[in-house]
Amino acid sequence: MPEVLKASFAVEFPFTRSLGPVQSAFLTGLRERVVLGVRTSDGRTLVPPVEYDPVTAEEIRDLVEVAPTGTVTTWAWNHTPRRDQPLDTPFAWALVRLDGADTALLHALDAPGPDAVHTGMRVRVRWAEERTGAITDIACFEPYDGGPDDGGPDGGGPAGPADHEGLPRGATGEFEDPITGIVARARLDYTYSPGRAQTAYINALADRRNVGERCPSCRKVYVPPRGACPTCGVATSEQVEVGPRGTVTTFCIVNIKAKNLDIEVPYVYAHIALDGADLALHGRIGGIPYDQVRMGLRVEPVWTERARYPDHYRPTGEPDADYDTYKELV
Amino acid sequence: MTRDLPVRDIAVVAFAQTDHRRTSEELSEVEMLMPVLHRVLAQTGLKTADIGFTCSGSSDYLAGRAFSFTLALDGVGAWPPISESHVEMDGAWALYEAWTKLLTGDADTALVYSYGKSSPGPLRDVLTRQLDPYYVAPLWPDSVALAALQAQALVDAGDTDEPALAAVAARSRTDATLNSHAQLRGSVPQGEYVVRPLRTGDCPPIGDGAAAVILAAGERARELCDRPAWIRGIDHRIEAHGLGVRDLTDSPSTRLAAEKAGAFERPVDTAELHAPFTSQEVVLRKALKLDGGVRVNLSGGALAANPVMAAGLIRIGEAAARIHRGESDRALAHATSGPCLQQNLVAVLEGDPR
Ligand SMILES: [Zn+2]
């Protein structure tokens, strides 16, 4: 068996996400170096805050400020940071219960080594220099040798609550120019392999041949082959050369120009049943005015220099195919 | 306590899986899946056209392609149209959907399959995309890092230590020597820290694989299988999204699912736990109140082979296969999804009395 093909590709997406009132306040607060939690009806303070009580499912909106200092509740030493993680030097992942909160926030903890980290250790927020209203506005946590932040000159932010039970001081979620949405960027890199059947198809295309596969059970020829007959649910195996000529089974006229496409509109995109194939593939029709393309039109592929698949299909000049010869493929 | 029992007896009557491997790049998903589908059908003599309902589990993020499951459908003979559904979850949840479909009486047989090729992408990073997109995913905490936080919480609580975790790994991989499908078998060194306190030996192998199960109701199950594995109860529960809200040393959702599935009504003799990390077996044993008398993960479990999206269904399949072979009379199967055992499914399977 020839070696399967492989190609790398990246999936990249900038999801735009709306924030509800609670998440908006929390992330805007981070921009202003204020950490907000949300108070549940039974008096717990959740940081990071959520819009619904995870226990009762009750809607909660009562924002309170907590301190930028806290205690590690559990941690894990990450000696080889991965791409896009908060720090590019070895660090600890940590769940930190901020002073005034009852739940813990996940973030990175910058420490010289695993021996410098333990559950129960005191830490404080290190703010990112540029803050945009995102969880990464907290650059990381860092070791901190003290009690709840007193809001002193090195406190790194406004004062936290005087004590856990007391009324919150400082911000309560009212900010000028609040953040209402975030863009969550992500990129994942893959190595795609199309498998045995499609590798054979693509390799044949390099020789400008169309090779399908025949189902051993129903004898249908699939092109491009995917390795299985969708009717019989069995592997296809016997290779069959199809085309190069074929018949337009159906088509549409494209009137909107796609981004980065240099084909003039309108143009015709068609399903084409190559001679000998029992499945239509699709391609663009050229060499004929768009309004003269019709079902039954006989076409052949047009290859351009070094192309890996036909650029388009053009009329062969043969008489149109009889509807009965392709009606099963429409 | 009493429990409303299912209105209809439904059993797992067949199970098949691939040999799980680090990579199966020479095969497309459907090419990897098809032999498994053929084997599970052959066990019952059914053809795809005989199946009343088909349900599958997989994830687009593993393949990096939208609607990737539609191509795998070619393998089940989806034309002419069949009654079919898909969950973007482990196949154990597809089995749950198929079970409810059979309960309604709409179908008497169901084919459940799931597959995952982890080889095309960076699995640890891919799995971060299932996390809270506002507060957690932007930090890219990978799957091992999150499991390591849970492991450290267990160590701090005195529930385990590194030698005990190493013993879980060693036992699993020794048991896997009898499982020809497993990816890692026999003595495997505990290795270096990946994210401390977890070492390579505490983490599951990354691999590609698929599994399939056939369910049948009532008399149909007896026709198709000498000793059907009757599903006496099945339930799944979820915990709070925020990791910092949860007690990571416990799994109340597993315990509740087990209770609702009837797991505590009588002892089980066998348990197949979907614990991809050694530390998670510690949590699950506690949540499920499993004592030393229960044989846990004789297949080697997810530490020996963890094809993402199939490993949970495999736990149900392995438990059922033991009942089919007469090696178990009452077995518990567990599947998990999400970070730190966020979602948990428990099924209780029984063979007819002998
Ligand atoms: Zn066929």
Automatic annotation (TrEMBL), chain A:
PANTHER family recorded for this chain?
BLR3430 PROTEIN
Q: What are the residue boundaries of the ChsH2 rubredoxin-like zinc ribbon domain, all occurrences included?
A: 205-235
Region annotation Disordered: where it falls in the sequence: 142-175
Pfam families assigned? OB_ChsH2_C, zf-ChsH2
**Protein name per the record:** Zn-ribbon domain-containing OB-fold protein
Q: Which SUPFAM superfamilies match?
A: Nucleic acid-binding proteins
Q: Which InterPro entries does the entry mention?
A: ChsH2_C, ChsH2_Znr, NA-bd_OB-fold, Thioester_dehydratase-like
Species this protein is from: Streptomyces sp. R28
TrEMBL record, chain B:
Q: Which organism is it from?
A: Streptomyces sp. R28
Q: What is this protein called?
A: Thiolase domain-containing protein
Question: What domain of life is recorded for the organism?
Answer: Bacteria
InterPro entries assigned to the protein according to its UniProt record, in alphabetical order: Thiolase-like
Which SUPFAM superfamilies does the protein's record reference?
A: Thiolase-like (SSF53901)
Q: Name one GO molecular function term.
A: acyltransferase activity, transferring groups other than amino-acyl groups
